[in-house]
Amino acid sequence: MRILFIGSPPFGIPSFEAVLSSGHEVVGLITPPEKRGGRGLSTTANNLVSLAESSGIPVLRPPVASGGESLAALEKLRPDLGVVVSYGQILTAEFLNLPRFGCINLHGSLLPRWRGASPVQASILAGDASTGVCVQKMVLALDAGPVLLSRRVKIGARETGRSLQASLAQEGGLLLESLFTSLGEGPLPPGEEQDPECVTICRKVQKEDGRLDWGLSATEIDRCVRAYSGWPWAFTSLAGEDYVRILGGRVAANVEGESPGVIVTADEEGLVVACGDGSFLITEIQRPGRQALPVAEFLRGFPLAPGDRIK
Questions:
Q1: Any alpha helices (H) in 89-142, and if so which ranges?
Q2: From the first residue on, what is the mean pLDDT of each consecutive set of 10 residues in the chain (311 residues)?
Q3: Which of 2, 71, 76, 193 is 20 to 30 Å from 37 by CA-CA measure?
């Protein structure tokens, strides 16, 4: 088959590698336009582009993939199948129907649980014991297509958003390898329809989602710190600082009688902060524009004491 890959790094890299080694012909890569960021406004590297160019595959970076000019360019590629992995744009019916056999999507959960833009973070925030990846046939409704294949992945007790996303990306590549091994020249198998009674939805993560609410339980605070590792990071405010990132910690021994956000202890082990239920030990912290530090080292330059409040 003639495969068109639509995706973005880092989640899409193992999947693109799987498609490149599948034995099918990859006729093009669609990936987001270049972004500039940082103090020097440098261009962010896109490893998918490097892989495509080294393999002689055309690269398209349209602002809107479903736009008229983009569709005209794609039609010339005559794709049989579109493979969408972490692309981040809503694709129209005209786009989805352009490949001869339509489009499939690799999704970072076991659908119908966690349809939407942030399944990795949602699974950790909910305390799920496992999650996974699945390949679905794309339809216009959000993540609602029949599921072709899936793989279950255990969520470790100290799993972070970054580590789980990396694991799911690798499992996704293996899942696509399995799919392409079974495919001939198409069409796709019918797949299994999703149970509408089991649908859960997760929305796109916003930066402000990382702000910790110390009125939550210590278990919920711990899940936030782990889920938002990488972006937007869990953060809180200290005296004299608009915010600091909380990079590491764990649920501590229960503390009674202190209101949420009050520092209970501040020592070499870290900061124990009272929560709405229980307490949380902060072990690693980062001020804006500074390096990450163990709390013991952080306290040498930023003294905090029991009774101080963070928010």
A1: 93-96, 119-125
A2: 96 97 95 73 80 96 90 93 95 95 97 98 98 97 97 97 97 96 83 97 96 97 97 90 92 89 94 96 94 94 90 89
A3: 71
